[in-house]
């Protein structure tokens, strides 16, 4: 993208229950720092009283209004794929999209979640044991996180998901990319947790709109590390339970920032200042 074309950016986030999202502030603050006219809007299905059936209309409307691109979050990361013209290599491998670039009449889907989680994991839990990990959730975010975990050396990932068909589909996809047995569908959470080194929540449970925890507190123990991708609120019930036991924990902030860093670059054609975006995120308190 030319520098002239990059001076005005209109982007947005499509998802459900996203009013607490920090994406608008992150993108607009970085745009201001780089001298861009950068507007980032929330397209909240809950506020608009819409469901997934309206996703095609929302994409069409964004194109007509001149949007540069869209971030995609729960529950749209997989539903959006059939509506796109192209997928990046990462998005195709993961089977989920969280960023759509609208350019030259085409919709190109990308996935920056895996990069975001991977960077957060490297920074926040650099010495975490990686033999056995339990992951809650096998949806769009879960697919990206699973790819990141296996890429960083997790030996066996056990997936728990309310939809067993979706869980098996993700396990099969991971086996094709990383080898048989690296990912399996769990059936006994208590036993899996007793054997695990770490736990990652990729479900929306714990969000402001879906309070609670995906794992009973009695299944946690001090030797376990616990990671969360939810970042509003930054301290979920799961993290509170884990910290009360003395677990090593990782909140969703670094994943949120680094997926935004890459999305900013895709939308603007400019390299984002990751440290500046991290500091800005932290300033929210």
UniProtKB/TrEMBL annotation:
One of its GO terms (cellular component) is cytosol. Its EC number is 1.1.1.25. Residues 13-100 form the Shikimate dehydrogenase substrate binding N-terminal domain. Shikimate binds at residues 21-23, 73, 98, 113, 231, 259. The keyword NADP applies. GO terms for molecular function: NADP binding; shikimate 3-dehydrogenase (NADP+) activity. It is an enzyme of class 1 (oxidoreductase). Keywords: Amino-acid biosynthesis, Aromatic amino acid biosynthesis, NADP, Oxidoreductase. The active site is at 77 (proton acceptor). InterPro entries: Aminoacid_DH-like_N_sf (IPR046346), NAD(P)-bd_dom_sf (IPR036291), Shikimate_DH-bd_N (IPR013708), Shikimate_DH_fam (IPR022893). Pfam families: Shikimate_dh_N. CDD domains: NAD_bind_Shikimate_DH (cd01065). GO terms for biological process: amino acid biosynthetic process; aromatic amino acid family biosynthetic process; chorismate biosynthetic process; shikimate metabolic process. NADP(+) binds at residues 137-141, 229, 252. Pathway: Aromatic compound metabolism; 3,4-dihydroxybenzoate biosynthesis; 3-dehydroquinate from D-quinate (NAD(+) route); Metabolic intermediate biosynthesis; chorismate biosynthesis; chorismate from D-erythrose 4-phosphate and phosphoenolpyruvate: step 4/7. It comes from the Bacteria. It catalyses: shikimate + NADP(+) = 3-dehydroshikimate + NADPH + H(+). Involved in the biosynthesis of the chorismate, which leads to the biosynthesis of aromatic amino acids. Catalyzes the reversible NADPH linked reduction of 3-dehydroshikimate (DHSA) to yield shikimate (SA). Homodimer. Belongs to the shikimate dehydrogenase family. This is Shikimate dehydrogenase (NADP(+)). It comes from Stutzerimonas zhaodongensis. The lineage of its organism: Bacteria, Pseudomonadati, Pseudomonadota, Gammaproteobacteria, Pseudomonadales.
